[in-house]
């Protein structure tokens, strides 16, 4: 099973994906400086198939979510697939821990 990745908000206010539990990350927008994690961006795009267990998170990319939904629909033409912008429950749990 893959390690979940969530979207962190850094002290510089940029957002960066990272593994659960990190307290600092390299910010690519700030010349790769190490920045402190201050919050979690909890809403992400998600493909949601109502016909099977295909439900990948796509981060902040609506285009990626639409592409994944389209590919899944082409492979499984009878499946009902939706693209949703929703709260990631793993991100919410990590956010509560960070903000304590």
What's the helix and strand layout?
Blueprint: E1 5-10, E2 15-19, E3 24-27, E4 33-41, E5 43-49, H1 62-75, E6 81-87, H2 89-99
Antiparallel strand pairs: 1-2, 1-4, 3-4, 5-6
Describe the structure.
The structure is a single chain. With 100 residues, this protein is of the alpha+beta class. The chain has two helices and six strands; from the N terminus they run βββββαβα. The protein has helices at 62-75, 89-99; strands at 5-10, 15-19, 24-27, 33-41, 43-49, 81-87. A four-stranded antiparallel beta sheet has the order 2-1-4-3. Strands 5-6 form a two-stranded antiparallel ribbon. Strand 1 (5-10) and strand 2 (15-19) form a beta hairpin. The chain is elongated and about 45 Å long. The model has no long low-confidence stretch (mean pLDDT 95).
Brief write-up:
The protein is of the alpha+beta class and 100 residues long.
Give, in order, the helices and strands.
EEEEEHEH
- The total strand number stands at 6
The separation of the N and C termini measures 29 Å
Computed Rg: 15 Å
Quaternary form: single chain
Uncertain stretches of 5 or more adjacent residues = none
Strand content: 35-45%
Mean pLDDT: 95
The strand line-up of the biggest sheet is 2-1-4-3
Helical amount: 25-40%
What's the overall geometry? Answer: elongated
Count, helices: 2
The computed structural class is alpha+beta
């Amino acid at each position: 099973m893959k390690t979940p990745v969530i979207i962190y908000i850094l002290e510089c206010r940029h957002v960066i994906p990272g593994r659960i539990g990190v307290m600092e990350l390299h910010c690519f927008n700030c010349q790769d400086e190490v920045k402190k994690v201050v919050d979690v961006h909890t809403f992400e795009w998600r493909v949601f198939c109502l016909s099977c267990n295909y439900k990948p998170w796509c981060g902040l990319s609506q285009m990626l979510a639409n592409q994944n939904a389209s590919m899944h629909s082409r492979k499984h033409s009878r499946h009902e697939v939706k693209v949703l912008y929703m709260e990631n429950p793993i991100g919410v749990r990590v956010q509560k821990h960070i903000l304590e």
